[in-house]
Amino acid sequence: MSMSDGRTSDTKRGTERLVVIGGDAAGMSAASQARRLRKPGELEIVAFERGNFTSYSACGIPYWVSGDVPDRDQLIARSAEEHRARDIDLRMRTEVTEIDVPGGRVRARDLETGAESWTSYDKLVIATGARPIRPSLPGVDAPGVHGVQTLDDGQALLDTLATTEGRRAVVVGAGYIGVEMAEALIKRGYEVTVVNRSEEPMSTLDPDMGRLVHGAMEGLGITMVNDAEVTKLLTGDDGRVRAVATEDAEYPADVVVLGIGVRPEATLARAAGLPVGDHGGLLTDLAMRVRGHENIWAGGDCVEVLDLVSGQHRHIALGTHANKHGQVIGANAGGGYATFPGVVGTAVSKVCDLEIARTGLLEKDAHRAGLRFVSVTIESTNRAGYYPGAALMTVKMLAEQRTGRLLGVQIVGREGAAKRVDIAAVALTASMTVEQMTALDLGYAPPFSPVWDPVLVAARKAATAIREGAFR
Ligand SMILES: Cc1cc2nc3c(=O)[nH]c(=O)nc-3n(C[C@H](O)[C@H](O)[C@H](O)COP(=O)(O)OP(=O)(O)OC[C@H]3O[C@@H](n4cnc5c(N)ncnc54)[C@H](O)[C@@H]3O)c2cc1C
């Protein structure tokens, strides 16, 4: 049903209408959860998605591009038809262009026909995600330059790879998406250069831990260019990209992938007068309700989250949060009750067989939060040293100087490094001290860890440093 007049939804007596803007992780989790709680006769659900896909895993794009996941459809968790079969009126290729908060309605444009119409809501969910940063550099829109935010982006990149003869790829940005894309292109047989403005790759780690990633990437044959600002993208006579230029050098490129981060997509919300924080994301309460608005919720990459370790708000664009936000929103919009208390900043990724993990605060975060802390780094192995396949693992741990409270952990190593950080994520959530962590009853057998797990070794060293009063 398409409403084109701003009528209120009580035209169906007793039926409320929930409108969802954005048809991916947060939006469709919210819609699905609300539908589980309320029957179609009680709650009508209308969802708008401007793209071609719904409920898909952008997280899987690097592995689809690498060929590890052969088929795009494997990344789609639920199709538009499946949502409609569950009584969610999902309108694809339809963009919401305005939110009229006092009028309780949204204006949407059908991107196929250009037709615009208003749809009224009793409850609104804003799940518009994030917008990739695309620097306004000469040549940035040339053929051969790709982002990897959506499945359409992934397909466009694969089409370029299939039709371009040259095998030189430049990845701009060395956050986790840049690093994962470098791996994908190496696996496809490209010569890969990563140009990165930070001191080391993975600025979600402290530089000393990022250096380990740097070394491993060079070991894979990737050329790493750090501390370098891209100034322009050069094009050939055919208009296609041919090189990436920095102030000092040019890097030949047959294909360029941009992975330089995202900003919350809160344009509509801002225009509607909804509260937006210092990081550009919508501000919500614990129930993911937009502050000051009883019947509007927001979640996923378009919101700011509370960092439970520093007590400050941050913008962290991760699917793991988006799905949880969606569940909480759906429960509340469906008449139930749920809360999202905040995050501790856990994230994992990998480049080939090197696993990269972090949770809590980096040194710079701790300084910014005004905390005095100890910082220790240990080297251990992922298995008992004598067990076949034992490989190096480096763990860095930060703890508050006065209280011994765990502040953050970073782990770089081979198999088992990434998910080990979950131990620290739980300890952070429970506000444990490093002394308490040393007594954690973690599983041990030689194929899985040394008798002292690397996380416990780091906790012991941090606890000793606290006792000895070493701090910065
Ligand atoms: C390459 C890549 C790898 C990633 N890997 C990981 C990972 O390993 N782990 C992890 O936790 N996260 C990862 N992420 C992040 C994760 O994909 C996002 O955090 C997650 O998709 C956010 O979900 P969302 O619903 O908030 O936003 P999105 O998934 O961006 O969905 C928002 C939707 O809203 C639609 N929309 C926006 N505005 C409008 C409008 N006005 N009208 C109609 N529709 C609109 C958009 O088209 C979009 O489909 C990765 C992301 C990328 C790009």
Automatic annotation (TrEMBL):
It holds the Pfam family Pyr_redox_dim. The keyword Membrane does not apply. This is Flavoprotein oxidoreductase. Belongs to the class-III pyridine nucleotide-disulfide oxidoreductase family. It comes from Streptomyces lacrimifluminis. InterPro entries: FAD-bd_OxRdtase (IPR050260), FAD/NAD-bd_sf (IPR036188), FAD/NAD-binding_dom (IPR023753), FAD/NAD-linked_Rdtase_dimer_sf (IPR016156), Pyr_nucl-diS_OxRdtase_dimer (IPR004099). GO terms for molecular function: oxidoreductase activity. Keywords: FAD, Flavoprotein, Oxidoreductase, Redox-active center. Its cofactor is FAD.
